[in-house]
Amino acid sequence: MMLRKYALKMGIGMIKLKVVVEDKEFYPGNIIGGHFELEGGIFPIKIKRYDIDLVVNHFSNMKEDIINSHSVICSSILNANEKKEVPFLLEIPLQAETISGNKKYSVNAKVLLEYDQVLTEVKPITIKENC
Q1: Which class for 125: exposed (0-12), middle (13-18), buried (19 or more C-beta within 10 A)?
Q2: pLDDT value at position 1?
Q3: 52-101, pLDDT tens digit by residue?
């Protein structure tokens, strides 16, 4: 048990997280559809929580704002070498500003595991002006 805990803390045999977004370009009012893929490592591990956020980073003042967010609190086990897909939908508000040189949008995923380990991945997206 202790060997497993320390191996996971050092990242040995850790599960893998990948965010898949259906499109790369969106418009205000669109819905971002996608899923994140979890692939088990060499040990079974308990998943405590999933978070998926639509985030805008303002480079002019180094500020990050969460535009839309979903969280799921759970208690599921991801077995060794098991693959699991978790779908998500995030709505882009109609008043979302389109992309410019000083800000960028992204979909951020965070998975909280047992032993307080956190997996994160950031997937950049583009929000364009409506025609």
Answers
A1: buried
A2: 61
A3: 999 998 888 888 999 999 999 999 999 988 999 999 999 998 877 665 66
**What is the C-alpha separation between 114 and 125, in angstroms, rounded?**
30
Q: Is residue 7 exposed (0-12), middle (13-18) or buried (19+ Cβ within 10 Å)?
A: middle
Q: For 48-59, what is each residue's pLDDT tens digit? A: 999 999 999 888
Report helix, strand or coil for 32. strand
* Cβ atoms of 37 and 20 closer than 8 Å: yes
Query: What pLDDT is recorded for position 127?
Result: 87
What DSSP element (H or E) covers 6? helix 2-9
CA distance 57 to 100: 11
Question: Is residue 16 within 8 Å of residue 29, measured between CB atoms?
Answer: no
107 in Cβ contact with 120 (< 8 Å): no
Q: Which of 130, 109, 126, 116 is CA-nearest to residue 26?
A: 126
